[in-house]
Amino acid sequence: MQILTPHVYWAQRHGEIYLRVELSDAKVGQSDNTISYCFTLFNFGQGHGAKGDNEYVFSLEFLEPVRPEIKHKSTQRQVDIKIKKQEVRWWDRLTLQEKKPLFLAPDFDRWLDESDAEMELQAKEEEKINRISVESRVRKDPFLGLKRGYLFMYNLVQFLGFSWIFVNMTVRLFILGQDSFYDTFHTTADMMYFCQMMAVLEVINPLLGLVKTGFFPAMIQVAGRNVILFVIFGCLEDMQNKAVVFFVFYLWSTIEIFRYPFYMLACIGNEWKLLTWLRYSIWIPLYPLGVVAEAVAVIQSLPIFDETRLFSLPLPAVLGHSLSFSYTLQVYLVLMFLGLFINFRHLYKQRRRRYRSKKRKVH
């Protein structure tokens, strides 16, 4: 097998030299390279170059001293090498001999003249100074650990509560079948009351700056659920035995048993890919279904409010006896679907933003 010299392209900055070697599938080991003072020898072993599979070697005697450590990265098409100069300054040429070797050429993808390189260097220095300045101005939050501990415990309690509801309803469904639809409220209402009262903290947390989520999306979701739970199910005994209670509670708990553990792990800086995917994907079908189930509960409650006159608004005798609360609920139905649009849009943007940031990290 022949020993050949590969094509090498070079560029420089004030502190570094960049070499690009046109070899595919080449393996460069630290032991295969010799670099001392001004002289460098690279032995690539077997690689695929312009003349096929051969052993490729090249050497360079630099114009000025360089540091002994090198960095290299091999791809399927080339090998990129970075060498640091001993002294930060601009070189008139790369090699000690004035006549450049035949295998050496400028790398125009990286090439900058001296003035452009100085501007790039100055920009990097300014960026470094600005970053240090910003970091020095930003004080570490002395209560950060306490805040994370509080958020972790809150999400843990909510996860356990909704998990209990989900497991209870699932077990009863398998044992009793459709009969479990009609006593859901009496078996799980106390835990649902507790979880939804706790959920009010999700409206307060953004106001205190404890979380980055928006105030209005949280308020819309929490207020909407509490109207269904406390006003429609809690105040109307005739609604408590209806099958719609099962579907509302089951959809709520299914969403939350994935959402709260995701936030728990985020509090400790951890992530499970499957859980992240479920958290940002499962709500796409379940959230609209939950709103539809809530709307069915509202519609079923309208004649009951008309009959019982519960929460009716008294009116002057000229206008009539009272204004039924059902009219308020009809307006609420419109607002419910408006809230669905706002929340769905917010969650979808959140999902897109997260996966875009992941792609940037990968690239």
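Next protein, fold it too.
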Amino acid sequence: MGDQDLPGVLVPGFEGPSGIYKDHAGELQKHFNLITMQDFLENKTQVGPKIQAVYIWNREPVVDQELLQSLPALKIVATPGAGLDHLDLKLIASFGVKVANTPQAVSSPTADMGMALLLAAARRVVEGHQLATSPDTKNFPTNWLGQEVTGSTLGIIGMGSIGYKVAQRAQAFEMNILYHNRNRRKSEEEDAVGATYCERLDDLLQQSDFVMLAVSLTPQTQLLIGRRELRLMKPTAVLVNIGRGLLVDQDALVEALQTGVIRAAALDVSHPEPLPRDHPLLKLKNVTLTPHIGSATHQARWQIMENLVESILASLNGLPIPNEVLLK
């Protein structure tokens, strides 16, 4: 624990995959007394009443009823990124606790990642690297072909801040852009990126050469893409997922990729993460997988930290909270 005169903030720790980065910890300690989960668990009675905020990193610490009951002074839960599927918002609100996230900090790098995956799948970049570096390669075959991106049709499912930035990038590739969203964007926003709204998801799936998932995971969107939806897609289509693994029925996806229902998939997310090492998705040549790194840039992670600090300080000082998550 740090300066006892500063507000107490619960953090997962400083080691392991959920540890706070060293340079981030130094910045956080300028404003807060950082209390690790280990410190808290070892002395709940003394430490619990000092904690006014929970700082989540890599989905830890888990905010459940037991934790909330142990933190009588808690004012805010601050979580990185745009996704909220790891939080029970109604439960947290029932304790009078606010929630803030950082959607703007992750929108550009995640959109970049979406386009990187789209391009990698279209032009078979991973396979090409393996071919170029294999000790068995004697020549480069002239019939080793990928898909054209320029002039193709991109269907974006989820036109929030990330989806819209994907559209901005796709426009530079002269792609025809379709989108499906819970709410239609303003006409001037559509015109700015040349996007056409599809009220029916089926229409988007049938027309798109590339389908990109950039939607939040909710009970309504879980398994949004299943066997039926995959069969609506073109046999030459590529599915790109930068949202959450549970948006897709992975068993149906494996079957579709193995049988030529769609051509390829490029996934930054899966369920679980990481996949079991014997999972069939890991063995398919027409799958490109990355380890959930949509926002994994030095710049984005620093901005996330700054945004979380700003929200926590606003909450503790009774000010409007930037990026406060409101129950709908």
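About the second fold: DSSP finds 13 helices and twelve strands in the chain.
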